[in-house]
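Hey,
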Amino acid sequence: MIFNEPVREVIAFKLTNTPLRVSSAPGLLALMGVSVETAVILVSWLDELRLEGKEIRTATREASLMHLRPIVMTTLVACLGLLHAALSPGLGPDT
């Protein structure tokens, strides 16, 4: 998961023809952090359910459904918080 995230970010920059600038790097790091955090929380909850003796498919389904709302809320807050930086036409903090 940790190694997959930078590859997706580079592909997104290439597809949108956006250069990696100093102003976009903090947003990139923040979104990568949110993505890794949600994956770690989901996997830790999945491990807890597996230790309780649940089957892998059942545990995956339960963990995913239980954490869907918090994951969506965390991701939405991070994206909305960084939206002004993403839509800014200028290069620096003065825009």
